[in-house]
């Protein structure tokens, strides 16, 4: 965007200000054709077809009757003027085929063919020849398309003078222009199908669909061949038999050939699977990119009409589909969401486009407009439509375009036509957004000026600079005013909170004084005054300034000077000079601004900002046109101004409390909200616009006021599409902004919106939640739990299938085209070695294709975890990649980066380490755990358990042997070796988890199980006998860790969790009890240590006294048998027994009982969390970064089976909990002292007791 602003002649990629309510005059748009000069050719030809190279810099033409191929270069001559913003292009012949080497025999290009179905008798003019050109004109290719129903062989291309001992027939004819000779490769010459060069021209793609797999008995296969242009060897082949099966339902060869040609997109392949479903595949990997569902009342496949045309945007993030009914739909490639559709706006099909033949569709270079071309039945007239992708409405139409036109593929506003022997370039007028232009001063007319005066003023000017009203009058008289004091223009208070010194300069923008611009001290406003209508606000602007303090704060600049100018084309611009006071009295913090203020990212109307000093800056503001409404600029500025008005209401509530001032302020506030409200219901597409990383919805969230929250709620109720992310990194969204600002209600509304839309398309809408899930869980844990409940058991489809898999069996759908490649011997050996595992995984993943055993199957519903990329790791940061290339020791640096990379986790790992265990009882999370455990974690966990058993056995054997034998030394060496590996894993965990490492008891026990045995082993190897305490401690940690290793099993994991929960709950009770033991041990030690003989021997030392007092807790009083006659000692013991044994121990037992009762209910959740922690540790510390890119281990989506009974039972429990919460909330309201009726406590208790009794299976007796 910065580059586009520096080059004033380039397009600014912002939405145009097209008003959807304006009518389009199709007769006034004229195509402009540039006068071009051509170099002469040494032959005459009649061009049949023309094609562009992928980068649009070259053109190729083919004349079939002359057999001539010509490559033309598109050159630019002249300068690029900022005022004109256009170039003059010409084309010159660069290469043409040679009669001796590359000329082809004459043939017919066009032919008339009838349908394969006898009921369709009409013949259509068509061709089965496809044409392609590579970048720089290096290769030019022709191919023949053979259809599955074609019985006769095609008429191949033949050279006019073929060389000896070479093949003479070409079904795919490729010429290398630098050598002026064809590519003679037999397999390539025999291929048929649509062809295309990739964008970088490194690959050549052929879509071969000649085999009739629908009815054929033989195993014929159709491929997409991806061929390298370096050596013309096949990179890989993709099987596309399903595409040819779908092709059979199209009855006419004209439609079939167009379908095949349109199936090849840049880097992708698309075909219609069903009448309402289209699939987009990657040509490089063969994997399914997305699945698209057409809108209601539309279809991708229509047997009686032309095929659906598809086009990918230049950033490959959106797909445009133009169906035979003339309906344009824009899809998001990620997830296949419908972004906009022409059917959504008018709710009916445009009949004027239905009967036309759809020829071409492509995107303009701004990725905000789509161009479609169509023709009537005779192809004598070409019609061009330009669509706005946000509204899917036509913004321009052209009806006088010459036939046989082809648009430049990179979205330029040029197209080529051909007649006879010369192609011609034409330029067409495209819709443009507002652009920043340096207009000359001579083209501007100054209407008036505004200058701030502290005493206040009110001036009104006419559009012809005439002063209509002034107060106070300079001459002390108002007789010269043409407007009275009661005129609505004069009476209107644009900034009513300025009571004593109102500031207003008005400019009438039209002769009828119906549209008036007002400039105040803080705002710029445009009001509409029409007869018999109240004044209406069209546009309001204020400039928020973001200070560079920490934390930054938002303040608002004041307008010191303004100048209104009018251009020759009738547009107005206001030149503003704004100031931010060094001690801003309107700022709540009243802190100084020590650095120049930073303007928040402006809309496109705001021209280049000039910062004069720390607190003064100037810029130009373009004003909206007369009939402009619902555009991004108007709505975004109204949203910012709404926050400013809410801020003013809080700051100047005393001034606004006056009745008259409050009425004026409410009027302004209501009008500002009306602008946004009308946009929500009439121009909802404006909320999809993103300019400088901001959308109107995000601005409403950022202004942080109750008025904006109501409008956000109103917009989300419409269920219209909202942007999922606002930045290319896909981290900033409306949800993340609301969480960071702590807007509870907005967060709940957004989550509810995503869940509702998720029911329509369960794959894509929740992708916004995944990057913000960690912060959502931290700030709003209850919202995160509720969200996870709502997306659990979300079915992919409504039908019920039969399966023999267990409940919650999880799997990943890695849908991909079968890929074949030319392999060397080693690759073939590895393919054979992994074939059995590959086939097993394929059968396991394709659960719907498994052979079902009838008596073992049960009904199930296929569900999905609608959290895309929840298990995927982010790519390695560039900050870690660069030092490897420049380091002197790249291998060591790569190892160090590998250890540093541990802290980069997937959202699932973050949830497993830091999440609440209640979250893991939800079916969606359980499905993820089941998938990971089955896919890779189970094998690795059992391997780690086996290694630990070997490690523990070796250590225990070594410490159990009395004599120093060779067996002990071997055992201790094994302990040192494996213990060092364990210690290395713990070091990586320390670096990955940082401060949270010491908070986990599992980590501390893992560290102890490696350190203490290694210390003991080291002393044995050095012939130093370790102490008994060291050996016992090491053995204790080895046994304890072995028990913890078994927590992956449910019967052991749940008790372990109960034990840890008991320690957490009763920790402070144990601390108090321990303090009592230490205190009374010290007291008795002081009182009894001087006793003679053996009566006080157990208390003579503090250590023995401590043991004796501890034994009091278990009823052992033998140490005081000889001291029962001393009253002081007896009293102390009675106090200790009462406090410790009777009180504290019973409290401890009660707490432990409560913990056991609670954890029994949540035992499965706790066990699943422990299992998730094991999986997370395996992912972080046993996978290298390259392994984390495996799609089969870390898929974007995870599917699972669930029985209908489980789904029904879960929904009932979830609805029951919601009902209980609602009842408790109502009871809380009723129990308020001012609302609680008499006797309600008794009634409530009876009702609760009855409900509990019924739930236990009891019966109620009538009294």
> Low-confidence segments, ≥5 residues, pLDDT <50?
1-38, 77-88, 434-442, 475-479, 582-604, 834-855, 1229-1244, 1251-1263
Instruction: List the strand order in the largest sheet.
Output: 34-33-35-36-37-38
Instruction: Give the strand tally.
Output: 51
Tally of separate helices: 32
Please tell me how large the radius of gyration is: 39 Å
What distance lies between the first and last C-alpha atoms, to the nearest angstrom? Answer: 80 Å
Shape: flat
> Level of helix content?
25-40%
Mean pLDDT: 78
The biggest beta sheet reads: 6 strands, mixed
Proportion of residues in extended strands = 15-25%
The structural class is alpha+beta
Membrane topology: Multi-pass membrane protein
GO biological process, one term: calcium ion import across plasma membrane
Transmembrane segments: 941-960, 966-985, 1066-1087, 1129-1152
Subcellular location: Membrane
């Amino acid at each position: 965007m910065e580059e586009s602003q520096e080059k004033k002649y380039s397009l600014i990629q912002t939405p145009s200000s097209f008003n959807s309510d304006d009518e389009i005059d199709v007769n006034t748009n004229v195509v402009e054709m540039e006068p071009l000069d051509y170099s002469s050719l040494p032959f005459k030809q009649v061009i049949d077809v023309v094609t562009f190279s992928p980068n649009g810099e070259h053109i190729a033409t083919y004349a079939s009757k002359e057999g001539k191929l010509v490559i033309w270069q598109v050159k630019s001559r002249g300068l690029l003027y900022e005022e004109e913003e256009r170039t003059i292009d010409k084309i010159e012949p660069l290469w043409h085929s040679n009669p001796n080497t590359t000329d082809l025999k004459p043939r017919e290009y066009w032919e008339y063919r009838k349908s394969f179905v006898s009921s369709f008798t009409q013949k259509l003019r068509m061709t089965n020849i496809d044409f392609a050109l590579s970048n720089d004109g290096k290769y030019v290719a022709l191919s023949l398309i053979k259809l599955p129903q074609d019985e006769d062989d095609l008429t191949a291309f033949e050279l006019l003078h073929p060389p000896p001992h070479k093949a003479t027939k070409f079904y795919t004819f490729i010429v290398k222009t630098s050598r002026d000779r064809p590519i003679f490769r037999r397999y390539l010459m025999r291929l048929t199908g649509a062809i295309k060069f990739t964008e970088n021209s490194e690959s050549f793609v052929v879509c071969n669909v000649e085999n009739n797999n629908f009815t054929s008995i033989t195993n014929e296969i159709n491929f997409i061949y991806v061929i390298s242009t370096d050596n013309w060897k096949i990179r890989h082949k993709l099987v596309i038999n399903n595409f040819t099966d779908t092709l059979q339902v199209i009855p006419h060869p004209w439609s079939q050939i167009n379908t095949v040609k349109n199936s090849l997109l840049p880097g992708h392949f698309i075909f219609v699977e069903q009448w309402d479903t289209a699939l987009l595949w990657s040509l490089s990997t063969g994997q399914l990119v997305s699945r698209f569902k057409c809108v209601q009342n539309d279809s991708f496949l229509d047997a009686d009409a032309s095929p659906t045309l598809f086009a990918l945007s230049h950033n490959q993030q959106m797909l445009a589909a133009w169906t035979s009914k003339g309906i344009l739909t824009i899809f998001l490639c990620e997830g296949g969401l419908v972004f906009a559709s022409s059917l959504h706006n008018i709710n009916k099909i445009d009949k004027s486009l239905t009967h036309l033949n759809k020829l071409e569709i492509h995107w303009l270079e701004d990725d905000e407009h789509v161009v479609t071309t169509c023709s009537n039945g005779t192809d004598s007239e070409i019609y061009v439509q330009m669509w706005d992708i946000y509204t899917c409405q036509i913004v321009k139409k052209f009806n006088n375009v010459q036939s046989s036109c082809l648009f430049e593929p990179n979205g330029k506003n040029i197209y080529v036509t051909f007649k006879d022997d010369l192609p011609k370039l034409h330029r067409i007028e495209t819709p443009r957004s507002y652009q920043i232009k340096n207009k000359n001063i001579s083209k501007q007319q100054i209407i008036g000026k505004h200058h701030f005066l502290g005493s206040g003023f009110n001036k009104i000017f006419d559009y012809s600079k005439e002063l209509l009203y002034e107060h106070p009058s300079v001459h002390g008289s108002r007789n010269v005013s043409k407007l009275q004091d009661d005129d609505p223009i004069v009476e209107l208070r644009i900034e009513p909170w300025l009571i004593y010194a109102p500031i207003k300069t008005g400019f009438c923008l039209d002769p009828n004084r119906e549209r008036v611009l007002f400039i105040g001290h803080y705002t710029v406003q445009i009001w509409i005054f029409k007869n018999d209508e109240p004044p209406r606000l069209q546009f309001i602007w204020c400039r928020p300034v973001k200070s560079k303090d920490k934390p930054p704060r938002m303040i608002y600049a004041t307008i010191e000077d303004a100048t209104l100018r009018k251009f020759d084309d009738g547009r107005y611009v206001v030149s503003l000079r704004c100031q931010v006071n060094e001690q801003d009295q309107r700022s709540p913090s009243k802190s100084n601004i020590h650095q120049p203020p930073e303007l928040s990212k402006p809309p496109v109307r705001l021209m280049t900002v000039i910062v004069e000093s720390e607190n003064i800056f100037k810029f130009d503001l373009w004003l909206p046109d007369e009939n402009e409404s619902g555009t991004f600029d108007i709505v975004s500025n109204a949203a910012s101004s709404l926050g400013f008005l809410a801020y003013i209401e809080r700051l100047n509530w005393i001034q606004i409390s006056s009745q008259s001032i409050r009425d004026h302020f409410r009027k302004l506030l209501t009008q500002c909200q009306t602008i946004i409200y009308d946009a929500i219901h009439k121009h909802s597409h404006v909320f999809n616009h993103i300019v400088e990383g901001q959308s109107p919805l995000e601005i409403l969230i950022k202004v942080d006021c109750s008025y904006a929250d109501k409008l956000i709620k109103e917009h989300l109720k419409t269920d219209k599409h909202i942007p999922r992310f606002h930045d290319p990194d896909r981290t900033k969204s409306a949800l993340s902004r609301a969480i960071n600002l702590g807007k509870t209600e907005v967060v709940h509304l957004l989550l509810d919106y995503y869940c509702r839309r998720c029911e329509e398309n369960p794959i894509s809408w929740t992708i916004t939640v995944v990057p913000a899930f960690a912060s959502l869980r931290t700030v709003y844990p209850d919202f995160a739990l509720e969200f996870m409940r709502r997306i659990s058991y979300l079915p992919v489809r409504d039908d019920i299938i039969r399966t023999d898999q267990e409940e919650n069996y999880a799997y990943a759908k890695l849908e991909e085209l079968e890929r074949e490649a030319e392999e060397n011997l080693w690759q073939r050996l590895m393919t054979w070695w992994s074939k059995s595992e590959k086939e097993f995984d394929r059968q396991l993943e394709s659960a719907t294709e498994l052979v079902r055993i009838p008596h073992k199957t049960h009904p199930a519903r296929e569900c999905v975890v609608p959290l895309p990329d929840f298990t995927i790791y982010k790519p390695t940061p560039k900050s870690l990649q660069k030092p490897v290339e420049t380091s002197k020791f790249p291998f060591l640096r790569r190892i160090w980066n590998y250890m540093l990379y541990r802290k980069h986790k997937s959202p699932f790992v973050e949830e497993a380490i830091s999440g609440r265990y209640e979250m893991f009882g939800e079916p969606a999370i359980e499905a993820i755990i089941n998938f990971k455990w089955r896919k890779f974690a189970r094998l690795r966990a059992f391997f780690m358990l086996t290694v630990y058993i070997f490690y523990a056995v070796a250590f225990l054997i070594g410490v159990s042997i009395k004599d120093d034998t060779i067996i002990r030394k071997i055992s201790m060496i094994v302990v040192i070796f494996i213990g060092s590996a364990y210690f290395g894993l713990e070091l990586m965990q320390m670096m990955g988890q940082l401060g949270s490492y010491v908070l986990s008891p599992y980590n501390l026990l893992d560290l102890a199980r490696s350190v203490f045995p290694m210390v003991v082993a080291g002393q044995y190897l050095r012939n130093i006998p370790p102490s008994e305490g060291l050996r016992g401690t090491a053995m204790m940690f080895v046994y304890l860790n072995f028990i913890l290793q078994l927590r992956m099993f449910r019967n052991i994991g749940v008790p372990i969790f109960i034990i840890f929960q008991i320690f957490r709950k009763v920790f402070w009770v144990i601390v108090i009890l321990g303090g009592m033991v230490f205190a009374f041990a010290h007291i008795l030690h002081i009182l009894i240590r001087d006793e003679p003989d053996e009566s006080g021997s157990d208390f003579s030392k503090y250590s023995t006294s401590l043991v004796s007092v501890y034994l009091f807790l278990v009823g052992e009083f033998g140490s005081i048998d000889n001291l029962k006659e001393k009253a002081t000692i007896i009293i102390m013991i009675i106090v200790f027994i009462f406090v410790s044994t009777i009180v504290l121990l019973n409290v401890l037992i009660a707490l432990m009982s409560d913990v056991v009762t609670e954890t029994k209910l949540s035992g499965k959740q706790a066990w699943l969390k422990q299992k998730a922690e094991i999986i997370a540790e395996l992912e972080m510390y046993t996978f290298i970064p390259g392994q984390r890119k495996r799609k089969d281990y870390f898929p974007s989506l995870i599917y699972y089976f669930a029985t209908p009974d489980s789904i029904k039972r879960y929904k009932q429990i979830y609805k029951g909990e919601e009902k209980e919460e609602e009842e408790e909330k109502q009871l809380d309201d009723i129990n308020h002292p001012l609302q609680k009726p008499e006797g309600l406590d008794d009634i409530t208790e009876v009702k609760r007791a009855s409900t509990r009794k019924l739930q236990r299976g009891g019966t109620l007796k009538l009294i």
